[in-house]
Amino acid sequence: MVPTLPPLVLYTSIVALVIYCLLNLRTLLFNRHSSHNPLPPGPKPWPIIGNLPHLGTIPHHSLAAMAQTYGPLMHLRLGFVHVVVACSADVAAQFLKTHDSKFSNRPPNSGAKHVAYNYQDLVFAPYGPRWRMLRKICAVHLFSAKALDDFRHVRQEEVGVLVRGLAGAGEKAAPLGQFLNVCATNALGRVMLGKRVFSYGTSAGAGDPKADEFKDMVVELMTLAGVFNFGDFIPALEPLDLQGVAKKMKKLHARFDSFLNQILEEHQISGSHGGDAGNSNNVDLLSTLLSLKDVVDSEGGKLNDTEIKALLLNLFTAGTDTTSSTVEWAIAEVLRNPKVLAQARKELDSVIGPDQDGLEVENLNMDEAYGLTLQRAVPLMVHPSPRLAQQVYDA
Ligand code: HEM
Protein backbone atom coordinates (compact mmCIF):
# COMPACT_ATOMS: atom_id res chain seq x y z
CA MET A 1 0.00 0.00 0.00
CA VAL A 2 1.25 3.49 -0.77
CA PRO A 3 1.46 5.37 2.55
CA THR A 4 -0.18 8.78 3.03
CA LEU A 5 2.55 11.14 2.03
CA PRO A 6 2.49 14.22 4.30
CA PRO A 7 3.02 12.70 7.83
CA LEU A 8 5.53 10.20 6.50
CA VAL A 9 7.39 12.93 4.61
CA LEU A 10 7.59 14.99 7.79
CA TYR A 11 8.88 12.05 9.85
CA THR A 12 11.40 10.87 7.28
CA SER A 13 12.58 14.43 6.56
CA ILE A 14 13.47 15.04 10.19
CA VAL A 15 15.40 11.75 10.50
CA ALA A 16 17.00 12.24 7.07
CA LEU A 17 17.93 15.82 7.86
CA VAL A 18 19.80 14.87 11.03
CA ILE A 19 21.59 11.87 9.49
CA TYR A 20 22.35 13.64 6.25
CA CYS A 21 23.73 16.75 7.97
CA LEU A 22 25.99 14.62 10.13
CA LEU A 23 27.31 12.56 7.24
CA ASN A 24 27.47 15.19 4.50
CA LEU A 25 28.03 18.53 6.17
CA ARG A 26 30.95 19.40 3.92
CA THR A 27 29.17 18.60 0.67
CA LEU A 28 26.03 20.33 1.88
CA LEU A 29 27.91 23.53 2.62
CA PHE A 30 30.41 23.72 -0.25
CA ASN A 31 29.25 21.61 -3.14
CA ARG A 32 25.67 22.56 -3.84
CA HIS A 33 25.37 21.40 -7.43
CA SER A 34 27.95 18.96 -8.70
CA SER A 35 26.27 18.13 -12.02
CA HIS A 36 27.52 19.94 -15.11
CA ASN A 37 24.59 18.83 -17.22
CA PRO A 38 21.83 21.36 -17.84
CA LEU A 39 18.51 20.04 -16.57
CA PRO A 40 15.00 20.72 -17.88
CA PRO A 41 12.68 23.06 -15.93
CA GLY A 42 10.69 21.84 -12.95
CA PRO A 43 9.24 22.96 -9.61
CA LYS A 44 11.71 24.25 -7.03
CA PRO A 45 12.82 21.37 -4.77
CA TRP A 46 12.77 21.44 -0.97
CA PRO A 47 16.03 20.73 0.87
CA ILE A 48 16.62 16.97 1.42
CA ILE A 49 13.19 15.74 0.30
CA GLY A 50 13.34 17.59 -3.02
CA ASN A 51 10.07 17.49 -4.97
CA LEU A 52 8.52 14.56 -3.06
CA PRO A 53 5.73 16.78 -1.63
CA HIS A 54 4.87 17.93 -5.17
CA LEU A 55 3.85 14.38 -6.10
CA GLY A 56 0.84 14.43 -3.77
CA THR A 57 -1.27 11.33 -3.21
CA ILE A 58 -2.07 10.74 -6.92
CA PRO A 59 1.35 11.19 -8.56
CA HIS A 60 0.25 10.75 -12.19
CA HIS A 61 -2.39 13.49 -11.78
CA SER A 62 0.18 15.79 -10.14
CA LEU A 63 2.71 15.13 -12.93
CA ALA A 64 0.10 15.92 -15.61
CA ALA A 65 -0.74 19.17 -13.81
CA MET A 66 2.96 20.12 -13.47
CA ALA A 67 3.54 19.43 -17.18
CA GLN A 68 1.01 22.21 -17.95
CA THR A 69 3.39 24.66 -16.25
CA TYR A 70 6.85 23.24 -17.06
CA GLY A 71 6.29 21.57 -20.41
CA PRO A 72 6.54 17.95 -21.60
CA LEU A 73 10.13 17.47 -20.37
CA MET A 74 10.49 18.15 -16.64
CA HIS A 75 13.12 17.75 -13.99
CA LEU A 76 12.25 16.67 -10.45
CA ARG A 77 14.47 15.77 -7.54
CA LEU A 78 12.91 12.94 -5.53
CA GLY A 79 14.92 12.93 -2.32
CA PHE A 80 18.47 12.75 -3.67
CA VAL A 81 17.55 11.18 -7.00
CA HIS A 82 17.33 13.37 -10.09
CA VAL A 83 14.42 12.33 -12.30
CA VAL A 84 13.57 13.55 -15.79
CA VAL A 85 9.91 13.03 -16.66
CA ALA A 86 8.68 12.64 -20.25
CA CYS A 87 5.11 13.93 -20.32
CA SER A 88 4.17 13.58 -23.99
CA ALA A 89 4.27 10.75 -26.51
CA ASP A 90 6.88 12.61 -28.61
CA VAL A 91 9.25 13.16 -25.72
CA ALA A 92 8.73 9.60 -24.45
CA ALA A 93 9.63 8.32 -27.95
CA GLN A 94 12.91 10.25 -27.74
CA PHE A 95 13.87 8.27 -24.62
CA LEU A 96 12.40 4.90 -25.55
CA LYS A 97 13.09 4.81 -29.30
CA THR A 98 15.57 7.41 -30.56
CA HIS A 99 17.96 7.23 -27.57
CA ASP A 100 16.83 3.83 -26.27
CA SER A 101 20.32 2.37 -25.88
CA LYS A 102 21.47 5.36 -23.78
CA PHE A 103 18.51 4.93 -21.39
CA SER A 104 18.32 1.17 -21.17
CA ASN A 105 19.43 0.68 -17.57
CA ARG A 106 17.03 0.83 -14.64
CA PRO A 107 17.57 2.88 -11.48
CA PRO A 108 18.86 0.93 -8.46
CA ASN A 109 16.05 -0.07 -6.07
CA SER A 110 15.38 -2.28 -3.10
CA GLY A 111 13.13 -4.72 -5.05
CA ALA A 112 15.95 -5.57 -7.47
CA LYS A 113 18.29 -6.08 -4.52
CA HIS A 114 16.09 -8.07 -2.15
CA VAL A 115 13.66 -9.88 -4.46
CA ALA A 116 15.31 -10.18 -7.91
CA TYR A 117 18.43 -11.98 -6.71
CA ASN A 118 20.48 -8.78 -6.36
CA TYR A 119 20.06 -7.64 -10.01
CA GLN A 120 20.88 -11.08 -11.43
CA ASP A 121 17.60 -11.20 -13.36
CA LEU A 122 16.65 -9.87 -16.81
CA VAL A 123 14.48 -6.91 -15.75
CA PHE A 124 17.09 -5.23 -13.55
CA ALA A 125 20.37 -6.52 -15.01
CA PRO A 126 22.46 -3.57 -16.23
CA TYR A 127 22.72 -3.28 -20.01
CA GLY A 128 25.65 -5.50 -21.07
CA PRO A 129 26.54 -9.07 -22.10
CA ARG A 130 24.43 -10.81 -19.40
CA TRP A 131 21.30 -8.74 -20.16
CA ARG A 132 21.82 -9.42 -23.89
CA MET A 133 22.18 -13.16 -23.23
CA LEU A 134 18.97 -13.35 -21.12
CA ARG A 135 17.07 -11.17 -23.55
CA LYS A 136 18.19 -13.28 -26.52
CA ILE A 137 17.09 -16.50 -24.80
CA CYS A 138 13.61 -15.02 -24.26
CA ALA A 139 13.43 -13.54 -27.76
CA VAL A 140 14.28 -16.87 -29.41
CA HIS A 141 12.57 -19.38 -27.12
CA LEU A 142 9.48 -17.47 -26.01
CA PHE A 143 8.63 -14.51 -28.16
CA SER A 144 9.78 -15.34 -31.71
CA ALA A 145 7.09 -15.98 -34.32
CA LYS A 146 8.27 -19.60 -34.46
CA ALA A 147 8.04 -20.09 -30.68
CA LEU A 148 4.56 -18.53 -30.66
CA ASP A 149 3.46 -20.86 -33.46
CA ASP A 150 5.07 -23.94 -31.88
CA PHE A 151 3.19 -23.35 -28.63
CA ARG A 152 -0.10 -22.21 -30.17
CA HIS A 153 -1.78 -25.49 -29.17
CA VAL A 154 -0.79 -24.89 -25.51
CA ARG A 155 -2.58 -21.53 -25.45
CA GLN A 156 -5.60 -22.99 -27.23
CA GLU A 157 -5.86 -25.94 -24.85
CA GLU A 158 -5.54 -23.76 -21.75
CA VAL A 159 -8.16 -21.32 -23.06
CA GLY A 160 -10.32 -24.39 -23.76
CA VAL A 161 -9.99 -25.50 -20.12
CA LEU A 162 -10.84 -21.97 -19.00
CA VAL A 163 -13.96 -21.75 -21.19
CA ARG A 164 -15.16 -25.19 -20.08
CA GLY A 165 -14.55 -24.21 -16.42
CA LEU A 166 -16.62 -21.05 -16.87
CA ALA A 167 -19.38 -22.90 -18.71
CA GLY A 168 -19.34 -25.55 -15.95
CA ALA A 169 -20.08 -22.90 -13.33
CA GLY A 170 -23.53 -22.56 -14.95
CA GLU A 171 -25.66 -19.94 -13.24
CA LYS A 172 -23.34 -19.74 -10.21
CA ALA A 173 -20.88 -16.85 -9.89
CA ALA A 174 -17.42 -17.93 -11.11
CA PRO A 175 -14.17 -16.46 -9.73
CA LEU A 176 -13.15 -15.08 -13.13
CA GLY A 177 -9.90 -13.43 -11.94
CA GLN A 178 -8.75 -16.70 -10.40
CA PHE A 179 -9.67 -18.73 -13.50
CA LEU A 180 -7.84 -16.30 -15.78
CA ASN A 181 -4.77 -16.29 -13.55
CA VAL A 182 -4.63 -20.08 -13.52
CA CYS A 183 -5.04 -20.10 -17.31
CA ALA A 184 -2.19 -17.60 -17.86
CA THR A 185 0.10 -19.32 -15.32
CA ASN A 186 -0.52 -22.82 -16.66
CA ALA A 187 -0.05 -21.74 -20.30
CA LEU A 188 3.23 -20.07 -19.34
CA GLY A 189 4.17 -23.05 -17.13
CA ARG A 190 3.75 -25.48 -20.02
CA VAL A 191 5.94 -23.33 -22.28
CA MET A 192 8.55 -22.67 -19.61
CA LEU A 193 8.61 -25.90 -17.62
CA GLY A 194 6.90 -28.41 -19.89
CA LYS A 195 4.08 -28.82 -17.38
CA ARG A 196 1.21 -27.00 -15.69
CA VAL A 197 1.95 -25.17 -12.46
CA PHE A 198 -1.50 -25.82 -10.97
CA SER A 199 -3.53 -28.97 -11.05
CA TYR A 200 -7.20 -28.80 -11.95
CA GLY A 201 -9.80 -29.39 -9.27
CA THR A 202 -13.50 -29.39 -9.87
CA SER A 203 -13.21 -26.25 -11.98
CA ALA A 204 -10.47 -24.62 -14.05
CA GLY A 205 -7.72 -24.75 -11.44
CA ALA A 206 -9.61 -22.90 -8.74
CA GLY A 207 -9.44 -26.06 -6.61
CA ASP A 208 -5.66 -25.98 -6.15
CA PRO A 209 -4.63 -24.16 -2.95
CA LYS A 210 -1.20 -23.59 -4.52
CA ALA A 211 -2.94 -21.38 -7.10
CA ASP A 212 -4.19 -19.04 -4.38
CA GLU A 213 -0.77 -18.89 -2.77
CA PHE A 214 1.00 -18.20 -6.06
CA LYS A 215 -1.37 -15.39 -7.03
CA ASP A 216 -0.95 -13.92 -3.53
CA MET A 217 2.81 -13.93 -3.98
CA VAL A 218 2.65 -12.24 -7.39
CA VAL A 219 0.16 -9.65 -6.13
CA GLU A 220 2.33 -8.98 -3.05
CA LEU A 221 5.34 -8.51 -5.33
CA MET A 222 3.42 -6.00 -7.48
CA THR A 223 2.20 -4.21 -4.34
CA LEU A 224 5.66 -4.03 -2.77
CA ALA A 225 7.16 -2.87 -6.07
CA GLY A 226 4.59 -0.05 -6.08
CA VAL A 227 5.36 1.17 -2.56
CA PHE A 228 7.28 4.43 -2.53
CA ASN A 229 10.26 3.26 -0.48
CA PHE A 230 11.95 6.30 1.04
CA GLY A 231 15.24 4.41 1.41
CA ASP A 232 15.50 4.26 -2.41
CA PHE A 233 15.44 8.04 -2.64
CA ILE A 234 17.13 9.18 0.56
CA PRO A 235 20.23 6.95 0.92
CA ALA A 236 20.76 7.76 4.62
CA LEU A 237 17.37 6.17 5.36
CA GLU A 238 17.99 2.92 3.51
CA PRO A 239 19.60 0.99 6.38
CA LEU A 240 16.81 2.09 8.75
CA ASP A 241 14.04 0.53 6.59
CA LEU A 242 11.49 2.83 8.25
CA GLN A 243 8.50 1.46 6.32
CA GLY A 244 9.57 -2.18 6.75
CA VAL A 245 9.62 -2.61 2.94
CA ALA A 246 13.02 -4.36 2.78
CA LYS A 247 11.96 -6.75 5.54
CA LYS A 248 8.77 -7.71 3.67
CA MET A 249 10.74 -8.09 0.42
CA LYS A 250 13.26 -10.46 2.01
CA LYS A 251 10.41 -12.59 3.37
CA LEU A 252 8.68 -12.69 -0.01
CA HIS A 253 11.96 -13.54 -1.73
CA ALA A 254 12.36 -16.57 0.56
CA ARG A 255 8.86 -17.81 -0.48
CA PHE A 256 9.60 -17.34 -4.20
CA ASP A 257 13.02 -18.95 -3.84
CA SER A 258 11.57 -22.06 -2.25
CA PHE A 259 8.87 -22.25 -5.00
CA LEU A 260 11.58 -21.94 -7.68
CA ASN A 261 13.96 -24.42 -6.01
CA GLN A 262 11.13 -26.94 -5.98
CA ILE A 263 10.53 -26.35 -9.70
CA LEU A 264 14.22 -26.81 -10.50
CA GLU A 265 14.48 -29.98 -8.40
CA GLU A 266 11.33 -31.52 -9.89
CA HIS A 267 12.52 -30.68 -13.39
CA GLN A 268 15.96 -32.19 -12.83
CA ILE A 269 14.41 -35.38 -11.39
CA SER A 270 11.76 -35.78 -14.12
CA GLY A 271 14.22 -34.63 -16.83
CA SER A 272 11.37 -32.94 -18.72
CA HIS A 273 12.44 -31.91 -22.19
CA GLY A 274 9.20 -30.66 -23.54
CA GLY A 275 7.07 -33.81 -23.62
CA ASP A 276 4.11 -31.54 -22.96
CA ALA A 277 4.88 -29.47 -26.01
CA GLY A 278 3.51 -32.19 -28.27
CA ASN A 279 6.14 -31.63 -30.94
CA SER A 280 9.69 -32.91 -30.89
CA ASN A 281 10.96 -29.48 -32.04
CA ASN A 282 9.55 -27.89 -28.89
CA VAL A 283 11.76 -27.95 -25.88
CA ASP A 284 10.53 -26.22 -22.75
CA LEU A 285 12.44 -23.10 -21.74
CA LEU A 286 13.79 -24.54 -18.49
CA SER A 287 15.39 -27.49 -20.31
CA THR A 288 17.01 -25.02 -22.70
CA LEU A 289 18.23 -22.88 -19.79
CA LEU A 290 19.68 -25.90 -17.96
CA SER A 291 21.46 -27.05 -21.12
CA LEU A 292 23.00 -23.56 -21.47
CA LYS A 293 24.64 -23.87 -18.04
CA ASP A 294 27.57 -25.66 -19.62
CA VAL A 295 27.77 -23.59 -22.80
CA VAL A 296 29.76 -20.39 -23.18
CA ASP A 297 27.90 -17.96 -25.46
CA SER A 298 29.43 -15.73 -28.16
CA GLU A 299 30.10 -12.99 -25.58
CA GLY A 300 31.73 -15.37 -23.06
CA GLY A 301 28.61 -15.67 -20.82
CA LYS A 302 27.41 -18.81 -19.05
CA LEU A 303 24.19 -19.26 -17.07
CA ASN A 304 24.14 -20.29 -13.41
CA ASP A 305 21.29 -21.59 -11.22
CA THR A 306 20.65 -18.18 -9.63
CA GLU A 307 20.26 -16.50 -13.04
CA ILE A 308 17.91 -19.28 -14.14
CA LYS A 309 15.74 -18.84 -11.02
CA ALA A 310 15.83 -15.05 -11.43
CA LEU A 311 14.66 -15.32 -15.05
CA LEU A 312 11.84 -17.72 -14.13
CA LEU A 313 10.84 -15.29 -11.38
CA ASN A 314 10.74 -12.43 -13.91
CA LEU A 315 8.68 -14.34 -16.43
CA PHE A 316 6.19 -15.80 -13.95
CA THR A 317 5.64 -12.44 -12.28
CA ALA A 318 5.78 -10.31 -15.47
CA GLY A 319 3.63 -12.66 -17.53
CA THR A 320 0.81 -13.90 -15.31
CA ASP A 321 -0.98 -11.23 -13.27
CA THR A 322 -0.36 -8.66 -16.04
CA THR A 323 -2.09 -10.88 -18.58
CA SER A 324 -4.97 -12.07 -16.39
CA SER A 325 -5.71 -8.62 -14.90
CA THR A 326 -5.76 -7.07 -18.39
CA VAL A 327 -8.30 -9.62 -19.61
CA GLU A 328 -10.33 -9.32 -16.39
CA TRP A 329 -10.34 -5.53 -16.73
CA ALA A 330 -11.36 -5.75 -20.41
CA ILE A 331 -14.25 -8.11 -19.57
CA ALA A 332 -15.38 -5.84 -16.71
CA GLU A 333 -15.38 -2.87 -19.11
CA VAL A 334 -17.38 -4.84 -21.70
CA LEU A 335 -19.94 -5.82 -19.04
CA ARG A 336 -20.28 -2.20 -17.95
CA ASN A 337 -21.05 -1.16 -21.50
CA PRO A 338 -24.21 -2.86 -22.86
CA LYS A 339 -23.66 -1.61 -26.43
CA VAL A 340 -20.16 -3.11 -26.61
CA LEU A 341 -21.44 -6.34 -24.99
CA ALA A 342 -24.17 -6.66 -27.63
CA GLN A 343 -21.63 -6.03 -30.41
CA ALA A 344 -19.22 -8.63 -28.93
CA ARG A 345 -22.07 -11.19 -28.74
CA LYS A 346 -22.97 -10.45 -32.36
CA GLU A 347 -19.35 -10.95 -33.46
CA LEU A 348 -19.05 -14.21 -31.51
CA ASP A 349 -22.33 -15.50 -32.96
CA SER A 350 -21.10 -14.70 -36.46
CA VAL A 351 -17.96 -16.84 -35.89
CA ILE A 352 -19.32 -19.61 -33.64
CA GLY A 353 -22.98 -19.50 -34.53
CA PRO A 354 -25.80 -19.10 -32.00
CA ASP A 355 -25.95 -22.85 -31.32
CA GLN A 356 -22.90 -23.48 -29.16
CA ASP A 357 -23.51 -27.15 -28.44
CA GLY A 358 -20.48 -29.26 -29.28
CA LEU A 359 -18.27 -26.19 -29.52
CA GLU A 360 -14.58 -27.13 -29.57
CA VAL A 361 -12.48 -24.15 -28.55
CA GLU A 362 -9.39 -25.84 -30.02
CA ASN A 363 -10.99 -25.57 -33.47
CA LEU A 364 -11.52 -21.84 -33.33
CA ASN A 365 -9.03 -19.60 -35.07
CA MET A 366 -7.96 -17.54 -32.07
CA ASP A 367 -5.74 -15.33 -34.22
CA GLU A 368 -8.88 -13.71 -35.58
CA ALA A 369 -9.75 -12.43 -32.15
CA TYR A 370 -8.21 -8.99 -31.78
CA GLY A 371 -7.70 -9.26 -28.02
CA LEU A 372 -5.66 -12.44 -28.27
CA THR A 373 -3.47 -11.07 -31.03
CA LEU A 374 -2.80 -8.06 -28.84
CA GLN A 375 -1.86 -10.30 -25.91
CA ARG A 376 0.72 -12.02 -28.03
CA ALA A 377 2.24 -8.76 -29.15
CA VAL A 378 2.55 -7.11 -25.74
CA PRO A 379 5.74 -8.82 -24.48
CA LEU A 380 7.52 -7.92 -27.70
CA MET A 381 7.00 -4.23 -27.28
CA VAL A 382 9.07 -1.82 -25.25
CA HIS A 383 6.90 -0.20 -22.60
CA PRO A 384 7.62 2.92 -20.56
CA SER A 385 9.12 2.34 -17.12
CA PRO A 386 11.88 4.11 -15.15
CA ARG A 387 15.12 4.13 -17.13
CA LEU A 388 18.58 5.21 -16.03
CA ALA A 389 21.16 7.05 -18.11
CA GLN A 390 24.40 6.39 -16.31
CA GLN A 391 26.31 9.38 -17.67
CA VAL A 392 23.63 11.86 -16.52
CA TYR A 393 24.07 10.90 -12.87
CA ASP A 394 27.81 10.24 -12.84
CA ALA A 395 28.82 13.70 -11.63
C1 HEM B 1 -0.92 -7.45 -20.53
C2 HEM B 1 0.22 -8.02 -20.30
C3 HEM B 1 1.53 -7.30 -20.02
C4 HEM B 1 1.78 -6.02 -19.66
C5 HEM B 1 0.79 -4.89 -19.43
C6 HEM B 1 3.22 -5.87 -19.53
C7 HEM B 1 3.89 -4.69 -19.19
C8 HEM B 1 5.26 -4.55 -19.13
C9 HEM B 1 5.99 -3.30 -18.87
C10 HEM B 1 5.34 -1.96 -18.59
C11 HEM B 1 7.32 -3.57 -18.92
C12 HEM B 1 8.48 -2.57 -18.72
C13 HEM B 1 9.09 -2.28 -20.09
C14 HEM B 1 10.33 -1.36 -20.12
O1 HEM B 1 10.68 -0.71 -19.15
O2 HEM B 1 10.96 -1.28 -21.17
C15 HEM B 1 7.45 -4.98 -19.21
C16 HEM B 1 8.64 -5.63 -19.32
C17 HEM B 1 8.77 -6.98 -19.42
N1 HEM B 1 7.76 -7.89 -19.62
FE1 HEM B 1 5.80 -7.47 -19.80
N2 HEM B 1 3.80 -7.07 -19.82
C18 HEM B 1 2.81 -7.98 -20.10
C19 HEM B 1 2.96 -9.32 -20.43
C20 HEM B 1 4.15 -10.00 -20.38
C21 HEM B 1 4.31 -11.42 -20.62
C22 HEM B 1 3.19 -12.39 -21.02
C23 HEM B 1 5.65 -11.71 -20.43
C24 HEM B 1 6.38 -13.02 -20.51
C25 HEM B 1 5.89 -14.19 -20.65
C26 HEM B 1 6.31 -10.46 -20.10
C27 HEM B 1 7.65 -10.35 -19.84
C28 HEM B 1 8.30 -9.15 -19.65
C29 HEM B 1 9.76 -9.06 -19.45
C30 HEM B 1 10.75 -10.20 -19.42
C31 HEM B 1 10.05 -7.69 -19.31
C32 HEM B 1 11.42 -7.05 -19.05
C33 HEM B 1 12.12 -6.73 -20.34
C34 HEM B 1 13.49 -6.12 -20.09
O3 HEM B 1 13.71 -5.44 -19.08
O4 HEM B 1 14.37 -6.29 -20.96
N3 HEM B 1 5.38 -9.45 -20.08
N4 HEM B 1 6.19 -5.55 -19.35
Automatic annotation (TrEMBL):
GO terms for biological process, alphabetical: coumarin biosynthetic process
Q: Does the keyword Oxidoreductase apply?
A: yes
Q: State the needed cofactors, names only.
A: heme
Q: Which domain of life is it from?
A: Eukaryota
- The keyword Cytoplasm appears for this protein: no
Alphabetized UniProt keyword annotations = Heme, Iron, Membrane, Metal-binding, Monooxygenase, NADP, Oxidoreductase, Transmembrane, Transmembrane helix
Q: Which Pfam families match?
A: p450
Give the residue spans that cross the bilayer.
6-25
- Annotated SUPFAM superfamilies: Cytochrome P450
GO MF annotation, one: iron ion binding
Gene3D superfamilies xref list: Cytochrome P450
Tell me the protein family, please. Answer: Belongs to the cytochrome P450 family.
**Protein name, per record:** Flavonoid 3'-hydroxylase
Q: Which organism is it from?
A: Heracleum sosnowskyi
Q: What is the lineage of its organism?
A: Eukaryota, Viridiplantae, Streptophyta, Embryophyta, Tracheophyta
